[in-house]
Amino acid sequence: MNSSSSVKRNRVAALALTMALTFALSGLAGVWSAPPDGDSQRMARKMNVLEKIFDEVLGESPNVFVSGNGATRGLFLDGYGALFTFEGSLTGGGLGYFALGNSNRAFVSGGGEWTVPSPAPPPKPPKAPKSGEEEVRVPSSVEDLAESWDVRREERAKEAREHLAGLKIELSEALLDYGATLGELTDDQWVVVAAFLDGFGYDGDGPERLVFKARMGDLREYSSGRLTLDQAKTRVSIEEK
After folding, report:
1. Which residues constitute the domain of residue 71?
2. Sorting pLDDT into bands at 50, 70 and 90, what band is 179?
């Protein structure tokens, strides 16, 4: 684990500890039974704490791009457990539009199709690079630009796959570290995190949804030290859709 990861986890842990102390001092410490009637407000406040924790994890993650604070939304499902959702991007958005000669020739973002309503003059040759600068190759034809697009798209696909693997680790660990704070849930109920992803960079082959599920009983076992982190990770179900 690098120093950046340690700092991030320490910040999230500090936030969780602060919220836990707030609950304890206000008489809102969790119990092990299902929330009785009239206690929905207490559960909602704890759900709000976890929303902020997940927002902190996502905001500092190098693997996913979210719209900003408040990206996570939580919902208590009576008889099932707690659900948290957010929307994000693995690549930071589309590849955009590449002009070829003039605005009449463009490569459509995400579609890979050409629009050529009229001929375009060939691009001007690049200026000679200054001393110490790397030469930049300018595509000289539609075929060259299409090849450049394919290379860039493959780079984005590789990048997205790496981000996907990193995001799985981050959300699994966040779920294990903080899911047990919802003490009102029973052992057979679930804490679920659903990520809705743009999938861009996979040419349509990447997942649009990641669903993380952990049983409350397993979260308690890990929180109490009866499971190691590696053991607990095997209890987290991750579905790609």
Report:
1. 3-92+157-240
2. very high
